[in-house]
Structure formats: C-alpha cells, structure tokens
Amino acid sequence: MNLTELENSCRDCKRCELHRYKTNTVFGEGPADAKLMFVGEAPGEQEDLSGIPFVGRAGKLFDKYLFAVDIDRSDVYIANMLKCRPPKNRDPLPGEQNVCIGWLREQVKIIRPRLIVCLGRISAMRMIKPDIMVTREHGVWFTKGAFEMCAVYHPSLLLRDPRKREDMLMDMKSVKAKLDEVTASENE
Ligand code: URA
Which CATH architecture has domain 3-181? Predict the structure, then answer.
C-alpha cells in the first residue's frame, strides 16, 4: 500500500468515536520519502478545519523554528499521534491512542524516515519510551532499530512558557545537524 492509499483508508476510519466530531481527517503532510518526520499530538481547531497538521498558532511558531534552522517544511513529513481532533482539544485518551497509533506505524513503515522527532510528551511516551521526561531528556537522541529519535518541547507549551524557547532552538539545531549527517551519509 502506498501513502495515498493509506490516507484514503484513514479518512474512513471509525476505530474510535473521534470521527463523529471531525471536520477533516488530519492524516499528515510531506513527501513519502522524507528523511525527517515530526510527530505531534493531535489536530487542533485550525488543523481540523484545513486537514493540514500544525497550521494554527502552535504550527506558526513551529514554522519559525524550522525557518531558523534552515529546514524546509516541504522536505519533512509532519504527522500526529491522532488523526482526528479531540473535542475541545482535550488530551487524547489512552484508548484513542491505542487504536490510532496503527495509522502512524503504517505511515512510518512506508516513509521509513531516518529521524523521528516527537513534538511533546504524548508522542514521545508512545514512540520513544513510556517514562520519558521531556523536561530532562529533550534533545537527547535514542536509537530504536533503524531510526534515531528524540523528543523536543511541544510548540503549544512554548506559547505558554516562552522561557523554554532557547532550549527548543538548541534542540532544533541538533535536529538540523543530524539531518545534514544523514544526508551526507546517503550521498557518500
Ligand atoms: N498540535 C499538535 O499536536 N498537532 C497539530 O497538528 C496542531 C497542534
């Protein structure tokens, strides 16, 4: 199955109740051969309305970091743990995460990125390790099978707590350095 076929099946998903409230499925955005994948939490209002991840306030802040470290948004794949917006942006329930992560796993299998960066605790706990402490372990790289993974602060947290923005910039610089390494090794 290719990414478009997977996206089409995901649009019809009724594995949990969230499909009842959505305007659009927010499957993900980016090239199917991206080397770098970001994984957020769940769509918010603007994402639900547009069908595109990270386009609201948090997304605009995230774009600034991509720009600051010279990563082109159109070169990376951006997805979320959940593909449908939880009502009033509440935290995703464990049951919703359990069923929705299947779509993310399929996306990862098809894209086979070299680097996966978790935006915030919810995706980091699922993808890196259940006891991850993003405050202490942001920017730390973990090798998991074929992937190198790290967690960074969620952009929504940076909107609420601007003191963490300096750390985010450092972490994003490390993401860019890793991406350059991976690109150089593939061109050898
Ligand atoms: N927050 C997320 O985690 N994902 C989005 O797509 C938007 C906001």
Answer: 3-Layer(aba) Sandwich (3.40)
